[in-house]
Amino acid sequence: MDLSRVKNPFEIAVSFIESCRNMTEMKELKHELNSLTSKIGFRWYALTRVAAASKGEHRAIRLTNYPDTWRKIYDARGFHRNDPVVLALENTALPITWDQIPTSTTVTKVQVEILHAAADHGLRYGISVPVRIPGEHQGLVSFASDDENALSTESFALASVIAPVAFETARRITARRNGSRGKTTPSLTPRQKECLVLIAQGKSDWEAGQILGLSAQTVHGHVEAVRARYGVRRRTQLIVQALFCGQITFPEIL
After folding, report:
1. Domain segments of the chain: what residues?
2. CB atoms within 10 A of CB 149
3. What is the rounded distance in angstroms from the CA atom of residue 2 to the CA atom of residue 39?
4. Longest dimension (CA), the chain
5. Which of 29, 61, 66, 106 could disulfide-pair with 49, CB 3.0 to 4.6 Å?
6. How far apart are CA 112 and CA 250, in angstroms?
7. How many CA atoms lie within 13 A of 65 on its CB side?
8. By C-alpha distance, which of 200, 182, 195 is closest to 243?
9. Average pLDDT, stretch 130-138?
10. Which residue has the higher pLDDT, 245 or 112?
């Protein structure tokens, strides 16, 4: 489909989002993605949770209509270990077109070979969108085609809007299928966060208390309350978990 001729391309995204709201089965999402992919000018799509899918975890998500021959080669040769798309998305919050990969990051000979092998199976032109949720493996949604005309400003914008919705829908369905709603990141009060940041900086309860105008016992109580919410035994584990979930950041503690 030539999106430049569509009166309001954004309606495609709105329709898809509305369809996703009440989905309960992965087959419903697959049906909608098959239709959507064609509407936004592409032929194939792939929706995955990167590391989990490669390790076969129970929370893995892998939904795609990529050619069977390519999927078999990708798995058999362990291409997930050197996927150039995953590498290119590690240091950006924005989607990337595949033709940008060789210039946006340093690719190895093996990764160049992967790109060429994908092209040999028709996957020549594509857009990949990173989807990140604190405390979880990175999500990745790609749309691909053998026609370079699929790449346009409109398709780039639509892919950017659609990808997070598609991934979250798959994530929700997977969690329900596994009998889990997923792990919720504990909420922190402003004071709890202040204490945690100072402890992560290497301060003792007493030192943190001196900075915040609190007693050492009060600081200890705040930190222990957060530790209990995370369900970990040691403060080092707490700091790692809080960093991983985005509750505190490296710039705050370094």
Report:
1. 3-177, 190-253
2. 12
3. 9
4. 67
5. 61
6. 33
7. 18
8. 200
9. 82
10. 112
Residue with tokens 């989807």: 131
CATH number, span 3-177: 3.30.450.80
20-52 pLDDT tens trace: 988 999 999 999 999 999 999 999 999 998 764
Interhelix angle 216-230/235-244, rounded to 10 degrees, is: 60
- The predicted pLDDT at position 4 comes to 56
Contact 42, 155 (CB under 8 A): yes
C-beta separation of 248 from 197 below 8 A: yes
190-253: CATH topology is: Arc Repressor Mutant, subunit A (1.10.10)
Asked if residues 123 and 146 have their Cβ atoms less than 8 Å apart, the reply is yes
Q: Is the pLDDT of residue 5 over 80?
A: no
Residue-level pLDDT at 29: 97
CB 33 within 8 A of CB 47: yes
Amino acid (1-letter code) at residue 154: E
> Residue 139 — φ and ψ, nearest 5°?
-95, 155
d(CA 119, CA 115): 6
Eight-state DSSP code of residue 5: G
- For 155-210, how does the pLDDT look when each residue is reduced to its tens digit (9 = 90+)? 999 999 999 999 999 999 988 887 755 567 788 999 999 999 999 999 999 999 99
Provide the pLDDT for residue 197.
96
Average pLDDT of the residues in 8-28? 90
Element (H, E) at 29: helix 26-39
Whether 190-253 and 3-177 are alike in CATH topology: the answer is no
